[in-house]
Amino acid sequence: MRKLSIFGLANGVLLAAVAFVTLFPFLYMASVSLSGSNYVLKGMVSWFPRGFNVDMYKFVLDDPRIMRAYWNTIVYAVVGTAVALVVTGFGAYALSKREMFFHRGFTIMIVITMFFSGGMIPTFLVVRELGIMNSIWAMVLPSAVSTWNLLIMRTFFANIPKELEESGKLDGLSELGIFARIVAPLSGAIFATIGLFYAVGLWNNFLNPLLYLRDPDLFPLQVILRNMLLVGQAGSGDLTAAKGGDSLIVEESYTYAVILVSTLPILCLYPFLQRYFVRGVMIGAVKG
User: Fold this and answer.
1) ABC transmembrane type-1 domain: which residues (predicted)?
2) Contacts of 273 (CB under 8 A, 6+ apart)
3) What does the pLDDT look like over 67-126, one tens digit per residue?
4) 237: domain CATH number?
């Protein structure tokens, strides 16, 4: 039996405190969104719902704005992650070849972008000149490559034994064939890790739709949620009337319900990718 040290006890207490601080907002939002408005108005909701009901979630699922924005967010996240993985994968595989022409120069130029960028206005002008404003590509292409993710994936590819690639060349495979048939199948961990990074970033993307989208039908969930929190567009008149005119409490409960619904897909996705996430980051950080 292992002895409990002072460090282990302190570490356990610290981690428990961090877990509590992290989980309490979700617990509170779930309690409020599942409670009756009268109990919320009286401040009687804390840990568990009072007057349990799921009316707010019914309103969320029936609100066309929310469901349309939900669908837009899913499309942006799925398409954007797929595009980002393809572009990042090809770029990282090329950079992992030290014999590539001007390898060091390309690497330095890419690393510089981690510290200096073109800025918001030049990026906006580029997107406008490309003619992709107010379209799905305005959400996908500007964030198609992350320098940090590119370098992590490059390090992972550099650790793959060269003998495997040489055997592919002996079988007549091209560089593209080696990547598709040998490297990519062996890189499930790093693709899952980087894909999770991209998916979370696209799911929570708020600035790009504000800059590049003008049509409300194209807004993702984060913009709709911002409107509800800051502009007070939490639900329709029918929603207020359904709760006896208690608009403040209805909006609070409704907003919390939307927040929980918007975070649910990522929360459900992470447990399935956790083992790939840890392994992919550790392997990709062995050497630079």
Assistant:
1) 70-273
2) 192, 193, 195, 196
3) 898 899 999 999 999 999 999 999 999 888 888 888 888 888 888 888 887 788 888 899
4) 1.10.3720.10
